[in-house]
Amino acid sequence: MIRLPRLSWRFIPVWQRNYLVWKKLAIPSILGNLADPMLYMLGLGFGLGRLLPDVDGIAYLTFLAAGTVAYSTMNAATFEVLYSSFSRMHVQRTWDAILNAPMTLDDVLFGELIWAVSKSLLSGLAILAVIWGLGLYGDFWLTLAIIPVVALVGFCFGGMGLVMNALSPSYDFFLYYFTLAITPMVLLCGVFFPVSQLPPLLQAVSAWLPLTHAIDLARPLVVGAAPRDIGLHVFALLAYGGSGYLVALTLTRRRLLR
Amino acid sequence: MLTVSGLCKRYGNTEVVRGLDLHVQRGECFGLLGPNGAGKTTTLRLLLGLIEPDAGSIELAGIAVPARAREARMKIGVVPQMDNLDPDFSVRENLIAYGRYFGMSRAAISARVPELLDFAGLASKADAQIPQLSGGMKRRLTLARALVHDPDMLFLDEPTTGLDPQARHLIWQGLRRLINAGKTIVLTTHFMDEAERLADRLAILDHGRVVAEGAPRTLIESHIEPAVVEVYGKGLASWTREVADSVCLRAETVGETLFCYTDNAQRVIGALHQASALRYLHRPSNLEDVFLKLTGRDLRD
């Protein structure tokens, strides 16, 4: 049974706990999280980009940079709520300790979700810094709108990932999610090439995937145009993330509080 | 301080807690004893409002649980069965992070940390990382962490399981200090000596029900004969057949040992001296005898 969460400001100490731990290992953590998408973007962007004509009217590196903002943000949130949250919940039993204090699971999961959003922001801002540094944008002021988009993408994939966290018996389980959800999205949602290159059926599937909505918001903002259907995309990302959080709350309650 | 009446909890068709009534006075140390699976941990989780009962009512420090569990948990410190200290934090940081979950300000927690470290005997380990601590130190830190918000009441779930005798004694000393300071304590354990040492009153739980309740001394006196002679060795079977019933008030054979309960141990020992191949151990009866009498000797795993 799904019931509405009772949110309170008490989620802040949960966020703070994760922040303090992260701060201790900030440098390796930043490098680990950010080097990977950056290398893909620059490697493919420069290497492949040389061979390609303009894609959708823009240089391939710029095209790819916009996709990478969404993709690296998705990964940052997903890794956080899968592996890291699972360690805290299942391995270290940190959540059990927190729940003995005047905290509810609603607070704990919301704190974890907002923490995932924070990690996404960091990841997105790093890619954005490269975009600014290399001048891969059309209009600087429009690129600032990428920051809330990045937070929204973190919320979306954080919420979805928490469902996997609630269901998982072990770390190995997460591989299914990556193979069956994350990797297909990377290939179907227009990170590396325009969705219009796909057969119509796959294009139809793609239209429903959250990463597509993320990229439909981020890419125009990089290129220097206002995105179309903003309301639809924002709604889709909020809906995926919000319903993920609700389902995760129910499943985690069943898992821990029984 | 704690009133529980008619508490029930079912999982599917299994009734884990079946009509539990408990009453714990302020300043009392109350022991919950029971074999594995008797419902001790489930009862504690119900009392904390972490799970919802199927029936019954709980009032903790005058607050209804689970309806107002959050408020109730403000007044309670919990030492869980499994260590769940934060391995990413040092000893001091563990206390600080935990205080925040109670809404305490950094300054308020920091003011309390030296006292807590001192209580736990960890003043010299304030900056140590958790994996460097021994099992006993971790337990003491967990106990100190439960006190961060200066609660009126403490719940401890098997606080000394897995500790060596030195570490157990240190925990007991800590608990005595808390009892002397007027804290109310609810403690689950399956160590009878622990319950006998610490608890003013205790309840023995089996299959989700209280099967006996009272002060440890009273329970021993009212449920069991004053002395036990444990008899074992060659010729036990024939001695059991021919002599045991005439000298024991109650005799119970468990594997290769005969437990002879009596109010006249000298008479039993005299009879045993006639059978030179038998060996024996004479001791006053204790809570464990009561426990085994009431809950049986079968394994509960």
How large is the radius of gyration of chain A?
A: 18 Å
Task: Give the helices and strands of chain A as they follow along the chain.
Answer: HHHHHHHHHHH
| Number of DSSP-assigned strands of chain B | 14
Q: How much helical structure, as a percent, in the residues of chain A? A: over 70%
What is the overall silhouette of chain B? globular
Q: Low-confidence runs of chain A (pLDDT<50, min 5 residues)?
A: none
Shape of chain A: globular
Runs of chain B in which pLDDT lies below 50 for 5 or more consecutive residues are: none
> What is the CATH class name of the largest domain in chain B?
Alpha Beta
**Second rung of CATH, namely the architecture of the largest domain in chain B:** 3-Layer(aba) Sandwich
Q: Which structural class do the helices and strands of chain A define?
A: mainly alpha
Q: Report the mean per-residue pLDDT of chain A as an integer.
A: 94
Number of domains as seen in the coordinates of chain A = 1
Provide a compact summary of the structure:
The complex is a heterodimer of chains A (258) and B (301). Chain A is mostly helical. Chain A is 78% helix and 0% strand.
